Amino acid sequence: MSDRDPRKRIGSADLPENVRSLVPGAHASDRQQRADESGCHGDGEGGPKLSAAALLVELALERYRFGCTPEGEAFGVPKTSGHVVRMLRGSRTSLRAELARLYRQKTSRVAPQQALADAMLTLEGEAQDSEPEPVHLRIAEAGGALWLDLGDADETVIRVDSQGWQPTASAPVLFRRTALTAAMPAPIAGTMDELWTLLNVMIEDRPLVLGWLVAALAAPDIPHPIAALFGEQGTGKSTASRLLTELVDPSTVPLRKPPRDMDSWVTAASGSWVVGIDNLSAVQDWLSDTLCRAVTGDGDVRRQLYTDSGLSVFAFRRVLLLNGIDLGGLRGDLSERLLTIHLEPISDQNRRTEHALTRAWQEAKPRLLGALLAEIAETLATIPYVRLESSPRMADFATILAALDTIHGTHGLARYAQQATDLAADSLASDPFIIAMTTIDEPFEGTSAALLATVPTPDGRPPRGWPASARAVTSILRRNAPALRKQGWTVEDSLDNRGKTAIWHLRKPVPDQPEKAREDVCQSAMSAPRRDSRQTDRNTDHLRSTPPTESTCVVCHTRMIISEPGQTAHPGCMPDDDQPAAVPAEVDRSNAVGDGRPS
Questions:
Q1: 122 with 138: CB under 8 angstroms?
Q2: Rounded-to-integer distance, Cα 257 and Cα 235, Å
């Protein structure tokens, strides 16, 4: 084409219509330009041309089955391997990104953004025509078994039941992955004893750590206690938190900074099954409520961006872990959901370098995961034999602890019950009004306003946090009533004759009442059969031959009443030799990856 050619100098699109008709090829050039902009493509055989959006939809329908979650989020599932979904919208793991890649492979062109947007809207409509299906993150339960997504490129799933575990390439459930999802190692046979060589957890708290790990994968549909790692400076709280998180739900960011508001919390919690919060120094009221809702599975509703009335539903149950030196005063509802784990100081002689610890951890992870899966299988086999006579707030988790106590002969449930009582006392000590109220010796019966007038103010002036109205007193009493009852207080409310005003009935605890409550929980752990009962000599001839005296239980370290000479522990903390133990079927704790079944 010469320099004098008008198409070269100004372009045919800029020519007047009467001139363009005289220029050879002008209209053909225009058609090609419009085809480039719209992404139109022929079928290669002279057939009708498809727009880029239509081609994207065609590519998607050929390769994916479409559906939506109960919350209305659309997803696609590959027809060749149908258990890991691709959400239609999102980051590099979304279907939008995969379709853009497929379009580039087929046409050697980049998909226009508008065409991608039009295709996604069309596919969302296709997805909404289907019945909602739940989509799980990392772990799911279906068909009498657990299904664990390893998060690897091969989309391997581990099936776990009471007989053992085994890897499989398919699952009857759907999983989703996020930018935070990292791959788990292929599990092999091992023992959980190796974990204690890498973590400096106090011996008394090791059954609680094992219970938290087992519950995280064995029971996805129950409330999980919040593991709170405490220790002085230099005890490796962040390292221990990271290792525990990586064992059950590896993440590209295993620990996150404390959220500053609800939006940052939703962002942090929605992308992984286990949420670790690092270096938490204080728990504000909104965060306390948020953590409690994440334990129970409650949700939240937010307005969708760029809409006036569109709503987004955030409903998720998570396994939580946090660490800190001291969280200060905690509200009663949060303290009831806490599982405190204490770390021992690390001497300079025993402290490892980060490199050495990381190398040892990477070598141990496959064995630890295999050992944990074997623990889960044996726990599932033991739970049907467990009966709790007295259930704490987190009764499902207490059942798992009781099963593990049965398997290993430990006292995790008694330790957990003791912690619950201690945390309840700590939560009461953080409220100035409750502290002042406990100084009243006489039983109280009256309204919240009368109680506010009765309780003396410290130093004659209300401190910070002191209720300013009767309504605030009612709120304080109802929030702290469970913790007060755990300490032996009588806390009841009823309506007056007109049915409008609450009348409170308060009475200080009867001596030994908190200890009696702990004994009931400790006794419940013995309702399940023990496998390795220890023989003890009891001389029942001298039962009650001496006046009752008090002592400290050597097992759960709480106060007890001596009922027979030589007694050193609560009856519920020691095995009952008079009742034969019905031993459930043994489960091989060293399952091989080949079949995952007991030999």
A1: no
A2: 19
Q: Which residues pair with 445 in a beta bridge?
A: 505
**Residue 8 shares a structural domain with residue 83:** no
> How deeply is 221 buried, as exposed, middle or buried, from its count of CB atoms within 10 A (0-12, 13-18, 19+)?
exposed
CA distance 124 to 426: 51
The residue out of 507, 528, 549 marking a domain boundary is: 507
For the chain, what is the domain count? 3
Report residue 280 CA to chain centroid gap. 17
Beta strand 139-142 with 145-149 is antiparallel
Tokens of 183: 């791959």
Q: Which two tokens stand for residue 162?
A: 């009471």
The C-alpha atoms of residue 331 and residue 346 are separated, in whole angstroms, by 31
pTM score, whole prediction = 0.74
End-of-domain residue from the set 479, 507, 535: 507
Q: What's the pLDDT at 267?
A: 81
pLDDT at 482: 83
Q: 10-residue block means of pLDDT along the chain (599 residues)?
A: 47 50 48 49 58 91 91 88 83 80 91 90 89 93 95 94 93 92 95 94 95 96 93 88 96 90 84 92 85 81 54 77 80 85 87 91 96 97 90 88 95 91 81 88 89 86 86 88 85 73 85 52 44 33 36 56 58 45 39 41
Q: How far is CA 392 from the centre of its chain?
A: 19
Burial annotation 349-361 (CB, 10 A radius, 16+ → b, else e) = eeeeeeeeeeeeb
Residue 156 lies in a domain: no
Q: Which residues pair with 145 in a beta bridge?
A: 142
Cα–Cα dist 591/599, whole Å: 8
Would you state the pLDDT for residue 19? Answer: 42
Q: Which domain holds residue 463?
A: 439-507
Q: Are strands 86-87 and 490-495 parallel, antiparallel or unpaired?
A: unpaired
Instruction: Report if residue 500 sits inside a domain.
Output: yes
**C-alpha distances in Å from residue 477, one per residue of 254, 444, 467, 491, 495:** 38, 13, 11, 8, 15
448 and 497 share a domain?
A: yes
Q: In the numeric block, which tokens belong to residue 52? A: 């880029």
Q: Is residue 347 part of a domain?
A: no
